[in-house]
Amino acid sequence: MTNYPFETLDDVDDIESLNYAKEALANGIKEADLMDSIRKVGRDNARTPMQWSKEKHAGFSEGQSTWLPVNPNYQEINVAEALANPDSIFYTYQELIALRKKEEWLVEGDYQLLSTADKVFAYKRQFGEDTYVIVVNVSDQKQSFAKDLAGAQVIITNTDVTKALETKCLEPWDAFCVKVAKQ
Questions:
Q1: Residue 175 domain-assigned?
Q2: Which PANTHER family match (predicted)?
Q3: Are 149 and 180 in contact (CB under 8 A)?
Q4: Which of 38, 87, 104, 122 could tie 42 with a disulfide, CB 3.0–4.6 Å?
């Protein structure tokens, strides 16, 4: 699920957000700027109804209304859609959990943060003789990365990793983990 696009303070139920808004407005902050902040960090994002399906109220309730509004994107982003798509985030998380349970290097390996572009998070894990590199584009824009990973073995990915490795360019939200070839 994504954060709800709260438009005005009338949409907000979170007492911390409302208290923050009262103080910010008293200090001259514009409501539009304030709402940008609340949309990003307000607790109501985690409190909107679960989006189970494309049905009324996202399949969450058969009542007339819900205590907070359902995100308007529930037609596209919901549990039923995720379960029907083998490439969805649901199955990616299933793979990540299984990998975490199976692979000791994810927990025990030495960790080293790699130097990257601002919107790319990358690190390597060294475990015994093996080296693993994890690269994630944490933005909605293409990002470049300079690390040469030719010949790497793909462990898990949500992208065409061959293309990403050749072009050294990540599409929005791309992520992969590779085992680096021994030198």
A1: yes
A2: ALPHA-AMYLASE FAMILY MEMBER, NEUTRAL AND BASIC AMINO ACID TRANSPORT PROTEIN RBAT
A3: yes
A4: 38
In a domain, 1, yes or no: no
HSE (side-chain half, CA atoms, 13 Å) at 48: 23
Rounded to whole angstroms, the Cα distance separating 127 from 160 reads 26
Strand partners, 157: 176
Counting every residue written for the chain, the total comes to 183
What is the domain count for the chain?
A: 2
Task: Give tens-digit pLDDT for 2-15.
Answer: 999 999 999 999 99
Q: Which of 50, 84, 118 is the last residue of a domain?
A: 84
Cβ 104 vs Cβ 133: under 8 Å = no
CA 183 from centre of chain:
33
SS3 of residue 75 by DSSP: helix
**Rg of the chain in Å (alpha carbons):** 21
Task: Report DSSP letters for 105-146, one per residue.
Answer: HHHHSEEEEPP--TTEEEEEEEETTEEEEEEEE-SSS-EE--
| Enclosing domain of residue 48 | 9-84
